[in-house]
Automatic annotation (TrEMBL):
Keywords: 4Fe-4S, Heme, Iron, Iron-sulfur, Metal-binding, Oxidoreductase
Family matches, as InterPro entries: NIR_SIR_4Fe-4S (IPR051329), NiRdtase/SiRdtase_haem-b_fer (IPR005117), Nit/Sulf_reduc_fer-like_dom_sf (IPR036136), NO2/SO3_Rdtase_4Fe4S_dom (IPR006067), NO2/SO3_Rdtase_4Fe4S_sf (IPR045854), NO2/SO3_Rdtase_FeS/sirohaem_BS (IPR006066)
Signal peptide: none
Organism: Aeribacillus pallidus
Protein name, UniProt field: Ferredoxin--nitrite reductase
Ranges for domain Nitrite/sulphite reductase 4Fe-4S: 135-287, 395-519
Length: 519
């Protein structure tokens, strides 16, 4: 009940809000051991949704009692011990599936409640957590996967991301937000943190203060996808690294106290920002933080869309980071263990996850690069630094394989499509294709060159079948633009053929080197 009185919008609370007042999401953590001892049937159905605070979702179909688990990976950085522990968990309890999400997190499937305490113990041992990876709370803090090693970043954001992650971890002042809440902190000049689709984003900026050029951040608020997507809007403030936490607390406080709690589909921060406007939002923010300097120079130069394929020099002389494609973000435990072994042998044992569901192995000395690339796992063609045009730029959400909200299949569908396109077509530029199984858009289809949105369609003989809408022209360049829907929807079975014709036309009519966005 801690914040019931201070919420400005606490009239007509929706059913789930009333539930959250009865029991805080974090309370569920205390009950996991008992649930594990007594089995799935002992978990009251009314508590199923609160398990999200522990990073646990019931996978489809709910009654079977299998869980999806999401593990936070702040700014995508994992050390060797963490990667090995994660591989062990998916091998021992999760039918071997290791999925990288579009927010740099890791997801497991097929987990049973009996094993959750042991999984938590293993995660805890290596400093990982699932707490707050799902639920109405601050989610995994994303950022530049190259933080600290990137020659194209203004400053190293890893310590700041860790500070914010730690601050919100099990923090009961902020464990009951109106809805999920996503933070991005990146100082990459190329918007690696996908700033505009987050509730709160810090992006690189400089400002002359007292005759000195100071490095820091500009701030954007109110972004998010789903069926009513919004691009985050810039505030007129400049934030030094030591003030990031204050600003994050202030924005989260506004969301907690003024965010909408009446209808869940209107509860994200983006609706409050849109209704208030950024001026009013900023005024409220400054009331909480005290005065902050006005904007300085924006240091964002472009958008790399979160791709890092190939071998690249780090800011540390003589060291390299190597970006690999992981087809649709899915690995298997043996692969994960092998990549961990390699990252330790040639690098410093770290693996970094990207918003594009891919990985980076950092800290590889110049004279080790060749040997690393010659390792058998990278010769097989599946995990590669030079993926084919379509599989290399395909992003997918979970879809009906495991997700209760899904309308259609996604990962397998996308795999079939891109394999077909890679066989049939070769392009001189990548085309980023994202697929998403319902309007929630975990596959971030709005920012893709070609976004495929799953829907159901009635055929002539009155059967319901999987179908997809096609949206084109999304980007986060220059503040961002969501893609636009083409007319109609395409039956799943014909989708690969339609896309082939469409892309063939693009290939034949575009100029050499012209990208989908420029077309
Ligand atoms: Fe599930 Fe929909 Fe998210 Fe896909 S977009 S993972 S179908 S909720």
């Amino acid at each position: 009940m801690a914040h019931e009185k201070v919420w400005a919008n606490n009239e007509n609370l929706n059913k789930f809000e009333l539930k959250k007042l009865e029991k805080d999401g974090l309370d569920i953590l205390e009950e996991i051991d008992t649930f594990a001892k007594n089995g799935f049937a002992s978990i009251p159905e009314e508590d199923w949704d609160l398990l999200k605070w522990a990073g646990l979702y019931l996978q489809r179909p709910k009654k079977d009692g299998y869980f999806m688990m999401r593990i936070k990976v702040p700014t995508g950085i994992l050390n060797y011990e963490q990667v090995v522990a994660l591989a062990g968990i998916c091998r021992d309890f999760g039918r071997d599936l290791f999925d990288i999400t579009t927010r740099q997190a890791i997801q497991f499937h097929w987990l049973e409640i009996e094993n959750i305490p042991e999984i938590f113990r293993r995660l805890d041992e290596v400093g990982l957590t699932t707490v707050g990876a799902c639920g109405d709370i601050a989610r995994n803090v994303i950022g530049n996967p190259l933080a600290g090693i990137d020659p194209e970043e203004l400053l190293d954001t890893e310590p700041i991301v860790r500070e914010i992650h730690q601050f919100f971890h099990k923090n009961r002042d902020f464990s009951n937000l109106p809805r999920k809440y996503k933070i991005s902190i990146s100082a990459s000049y190329y918007n690696s943190g996908h700033a505009e689709i987050n509730d709160l984003a810090f992006i690189p900026a400089t400002k002359e203060i007292d005759g000195k050029l100071v490095k820091g951040f500009h701030v954007k608020v109110g972004g998010g996808l789903s069926s009513k997507p919004h691009l985050a809007q810039p505030l007129n403030i400049f934030v030094t690294p030591d003030k990031v936490k204050d600003v994050a607390i202030a924005v989260t406080t506004i969301f907690r106290d003024y965010g909408y709690r009446e209808k869940r589909h209107r509860a994200r921060l983006k609706f409050l920002v849109a209704d208030w406007g950024v001026e009013k939002f900023q005024e409220k923010l400054l009331e909480l933080t005290g005065p902050l300097p006005e904007r300085g120079n924006d240091e964002t130069k472009g958008w790399n869309a979160g791709y890092f394929y190939g071998v690249h020099p780090q800011k540390q002389k003589g060291l390299n980071y190597i970006g690999f494609n992981v087809p649709l973000g899915r690995l298997y435990s043996e692969e994960v263990l092998e990549i961990a072994r390699i990252s330790k042998k040639y690098g410093n044992g770290q693996i970094r996850t990207c918003n594009t569901q891919n990985i980076v192995i950092p800290n590889v000395p110049d004279d080790q690069v060749e040997a690393l690339l010659a390792e058998e796992i990278f010769q097989k063609g599946r995990i590669t630094i030079k993926p084919k045009s379509f599989i290399g730029y395909a992003v997918s959400c979970t879809g009906t394989e495991f997700c209760n909200l899904a309308l259609v299949e996604t990962k397998q569908r996308m795999k079939t499509i891109v394999e077909y396109l890679d066989q049939e077509l070769e392009l001189d530029v990548p085309v980023r294709m994202h697929i998403t199984g319902c309007p929630n858009s975990c596959g971030q289809r709005q920012i893709a060159d070609i976004g495929l949105q799953g829907v159901l369609m009635r055929t002539k003989d009155k059967k319901m079948v999987d179908a997809y809408e096609i949206h084109v022209g999304g980007t986060l360049l220059d503040g961002g633009r969501f893609n636009e829907k083409l007319k109609g929807k395409i039956e799943a079975e014909k989708l690969h053929l339609v896309l082939k014709d469409f892309l063939q036309y693009f290939k034949e009519t575009k100029l050499a080197g012209e990208t989908f966005l420029e077309y």
